[in-house]
Amino acid sequence: MYLTINDCMPITNVLFFLDRSFRLGNYKDFFWTTAAQASYLQFCVMEPYINEVRALAISCINFGGYKLRPYPLFTLSKLLMIEESDLESFCNSCGLKTCTDESGNKLLPTKQTTFNHPKDGFQYYSFLGLQEYESKF
């Protein structure tokens, strides 16, 4: 059985939308669409780039914020679809320091000048939209 162009349209629509979200810097849509609409095969192809996109998003938040208030890791972890503990490790591997407020919430201070990509690449970090696939395999 051969695939026709109509069979491929949903697949290409997802990929075009992900590419558009990435190019526009809409990282929330990128991750939410990946979790909601990407097939397992598409995710496997994109997996090496997920952490690169996370690094770009964190860089934008770090350098682009106009307020000097720290950004809560809990909120950031929901946007980037990563466990909060993994996000803290991810930030540290990018050269960013995290802190804890008086009520115990972990925060990412903005305007840090030490941001860089790890020379050895990123280790594996969780992706919150992947549990559905992981339970099948």
Automatic annotation (TrEMBL):
Official protein name in the record: SAC3/GANP/THP3 conserved domain-containing protein
InterPro entries, A to Z: SAC3/GANP/THP3 (IPR045107), SAC3/GANP/THP3_conserved (IPR005062)
Organism: Stylosanthes scabra
Membrane-spanning ranges: none
Pfam families: SAC3_GANP (PF03399)
UniProt superkingdom: Eukaryota
Span of domain SAC3/GANP/THP3 conserved: 19-98
Coiled coil: none
